[in-house]
Amino acid sequence: MTVTAPYGSWESPITISMLTEAGVPLGAVRTDGGDLYWTESRALEGGRTVIVRRNAHGEISDVVPPGFNSRTRVHEYGGGSYAVEDGVLISSDFVDQRVYRLEAGQATAITPEPKVAAGDRFADFEFHGDRIICVRERHREGKEVANTLVTFPLDGSDKPRVITKGHDFYSSPRVSPDGTALAWLSWDHPRMPWDGTELWVAALAPDGSISEPELVAGGDDESVFQPEWSPTGVLHFVSDRTGWWNLFRAVDGHIEALHLMDAEFGMPQWVFGMSRYGFLLNDRIAAVYSSGGFDHVAIIDGDMVQSVPVSYDHIGPTVAVCGDQLFTTAGSGGIPMAVIRVDVDTEAVKVVKNSLEIDIDPSLISLPEAIEFPTTNDEIAHAFYYPPRNPNFVAPPGETPPLLVFSHGGPTAATSPELDLGLQFWTSRGFAVVDVNYRGSTGYGRAYRNALREQWGVVDLDDCINAALFLADAGHVDGERMAIRGGSAGGYTTLCALAFADVFAAGASYFGVGDLAALATDTHKFESRYLDSMIGPYPEAADVYEARSPIHNVDGFSCPVVLLQGLDDRVVPPPQAEEIVAALDAKGIPHAYVPFEGEGHGFRKAENIERAREVEFYFYSRVFGFDSADVLDPVEIAHEEAL
């Protein structure tokens, strides 16, 4: 029987605990002969990342000892934390950041204990005979953080030795099939890797030393992504020199395009180890590209490009190719993320491991609708719209649903149309959701990405507001009950929306930026010059930083705000949130502040993920005035009497 109840009060089988207990995020797919590897981020195990293997017999098991956490802190965001070749598996450990060789359930350190605890950090590993080549980020008290490429033996018999230095950042070391050449990427402040990188090649000796480095491609305004050697020794790479991240190769000193498309074969290098293509048999390439917010699989064979139909709209950031098969993680609006195998010749797709361990009634799932909407400067922005959906409930006649505007982090990143229980948590209770790919998001070409240059806090804000107004004007949502939420950069856009506009009735900021100047002067090396392009150089543009910082515009706050913050966050430190809280308190605006011990930039522990969602839901129930069907542990709301 269908029950009539107000939006927001619907009872849903997608519980808060299900967000962490129903499955695990999957990532970092690798192959080694007949073995397949991937990572699992396990909230129920303190948020540690575990390397998992499926052997040639189909048996799946963990390959790290209990308690081992396969994560690196290079660039703080990590990625590229492990590598495997010919049965040899190595990985960084999150606790001490040393590199370990993993055998028979045992971990043996192969890099020395650094002078500063966790001060030597390693990522993006590449095998070279009995040696490893990788990125090292060295932290020393009183010295600037140094990023280099280093090499060291697999048996740990010698300490890491620098093979190239001088640039601010390095990534993607790749050894040619015959072992005589090394390719890598580098870039320097103030560029981020999606602004401009340089692709280098040098002669490589057996001991890992290099000579005769040569610049192949890239520069200040060309972003090169994922250099890879073909089995015949031809260097391939992705470049956005045409305005889109497309595939190229270097042949006899010339750069050749493989197939030009208005589509993205690359991604922003927030983390290491990403890959979007690999080499099949017979000189073919299996590649993943994004177009219109959706991912696709294609086979490139000379001048021919053939689409491979798969039932997935989102492909994960790593693909691995072995023989005529492609392995990756994939999902879509109605299908949970999974590790999959694609036979590119037969087009058969097999699920190896699902991220969710439960079955959800398809009638409960709100499917994404890709929308385009007008925004400022006569431009068009993009989003995915999810209407409320629960077959057991209908709203009273004439009622329209409250809207949650999701603002993704980055901001140079993108949201994707994958099945997300965290999002379905809201739609199954009667909320509408619009997940915005504001200008500056990736997946729509370099021009769309560059629209955010010197405009952060302006065009992203405009697009989130206009997405909400577009849906309200169309009668899809209640224009008086709209909230905006986001984490990190999305938290900044959220706080801007509350400080500089009067459209939303509430907001939720997860470790959001409140003070741009503090972010520019108190953050880690990787992002320390990010704002040069997003806002302007600091302190030369100090007036712009102040004008766009929510903390300096508290008079503009007029609606309730909930702030959630990890106390170990190095990217957006806790004082950012605490200053906003003090300002809200001084002004008498209803707000809640919930700090989390032991959490950094992004929550990983099950109890904290669940508590954060409970707090946010309780907060909306009080602001929007509905009774939750869930039994919620209240959170203290300062100045609640003003609601």
Fourth CATH level, the homologous superfamily of the largest domain:
Alpha/Beta hydrolase fold, catalytic domain
Distance between the termini: 35 Å
Major sheet description: 8 strands, mixed
CATH third-level topology of the largest domain = Rossmann fold
Overall outline: globular
Strand order of the largest sheet: 30-31-34-33-35-36-37-38
CATH class of the largest domain: Alpha Beta
Q: How many domains, as an integer?
A: 3
Radius of gyration: 24 Å
Q: How much of the polypeptide forms β-strand, as a percent range? A: 35-45%
List the uncertain runs.
none
Give the gist of this structure.
With about 650 residues, the protein is mainly beta. About 15% of the residues lie in helices and about 35% in strands. The chain contains ten helices and 38 strands.
What is the fold's blueprint, element by element?
Blueprint: E1 3-4, H1 18-21, E2 26-32, E3 35-42, E4 48-54, E5 60-62, E6 82-85, E7 88-92, E8 99-103, E9 106-109, E10 120-128, E11 131-138, E12 146-153, E13 161-164, E14 169-175, E15 181-187, E16 198-204, E17 210-218, E18 224-229, E19 235-239, E20 246-251, E21 254-257, E22 277-279, E23 285-291, E24 294-301, E25 304-308, E26 314-322, E27 325-332, E28 335-343, E29 348-354, E30 369-375, E31 379-386, E32 393-394, E33 403-407, H2 421-427, E34 432-437, H3 446-450, H4 459-473, E35 482-487, H5 489-500, E36 506-510, H6 516-521, H7 530-534, H8 542-547, E37 561-566, H9 575-587, E38 591-596, H10 606-624
Parallel strand pairs: 1-32, 33-34, 33-35, 35-36, 36-37, 37-38
Antiparallel strand pairs: 2-3, 3-4, 4-5, 6-7, 7-8, 8-9, 10-11, 11-12, 12-13, 14-15, 15-16, 16-17, 18-19, 19-20, 20-21, 22-23, 23-24, 24-25, 26-27, 27-28, 28-29, 30-31, 31-34
Helix pairs in contact: 4-5
